[in-house]
Amino acid sequence: MTLHSNTRALERDIVTDFSSRMSYGAYLDLNTLLSAQHPVSRPEHHDELLFIVQHQTTELWLKLVLHETRAARAAFDADDIGVALKCIARVKHIQKTLTEQWSVLATLTPTEYAQFRHFLGNASGFQSHQYRAIEFILGNKNAGMLPVFESDPAAHDELATLLHEPSLYDAFWRHLSRTGLDVPRSTLDRDVTVAYVMDPNLLPLVKSIYEAPEEHWSAYETFEELVDLEENFQLWRFRHLRTVLRVIGMKSGTGGSSGAGFLQRALDLTFFPELFAVRTEIGR
User: Is the dihedral of CA 52, 57, 58, 60 positive or negative?
Assistant: First the structure.
């Protein structure tokens, strides 16, 4: 088949009649998806669509991150570490996409954002229940966040459920315990409703695995995958902080937070502390 007048002819078998077939748009429910952008600025500001699409696509990726992280946790529960690592690998790729997305929002100048920011009222990414759900399932739980979602019963219930469930990290250590490794009771029996903090009793086991990876390769590999996961999360947080500084400087957030200062403190939070602390111990 050749081109004629710079036009590519349709191949004979390409389907064109969708009167009784599922189309691409129907499968993805594009009518709903593409009609879900509702700028609130009056008159409507050109750049508000960017702001909405940026955050909506982020929420779609967060939905997939949560889906895959739940599957990884279930795989650890089933002692299927291969499936767990596959899910974590996918999350890592999604995280890279999420981090790069900040560069799109960063094209929004302070002057442009200031022209519609006041229309947002108290709406803020701080209120993203999916972001909080991901923090919870990774172990950074904070029951103090729940009141933010009391006006959204479904979101509140999801977070309350995750608050009382073991995190991905909890499931991993329980898996290793079932394989015969001497995981301390302080780790296995911890209160899963609070944020995970470093357990000094766990550090010797982590160190022994790092120093003899050939004996416990799957655990060793998982350690490094989890380190990647946390580093990617911190890079996302950092890009968020830098984008906020670039667009609004040190202004308070629309949701009532201190803005950049609040985001800066998030960089001190951790999910898998022993996997980083052990690096100081190795080789001593």
Answer: positive
β-bridge partners, 7: 4
The DSSP annotation for 111-139 comes to HHHHTTGGGGTT--GGG-HHHHHHHHHHT
Whole-angstrom Cα distance, residue 134 to residue 136?
5
DSSP 258: -
Q: What are phi and psi of 158, to 5 degrees?
A: -65, -45
Q: Which tokens is 24 given?
A: 């691409």
Structure tokens of 98? 């999420």
Contact partners, residue 29, CB within 8 Å, separation at least 6: none
Q: Distance between CA 103 and CA 181 in Å, rounded?
A: 44
**Which tokens in the block code for residue 54?**
């940026």
pTM: 0.95
Segment 162-219, tens digit of pLDDT:
999 999 999 999 999 999 999 999 999 999 999 999 999 999 999 999 999 999 999 9
Whole-number Å distance between alpha carbons of 125 and 30: 24
Q: How far apart are the first and last CA of the chain?
A: 68
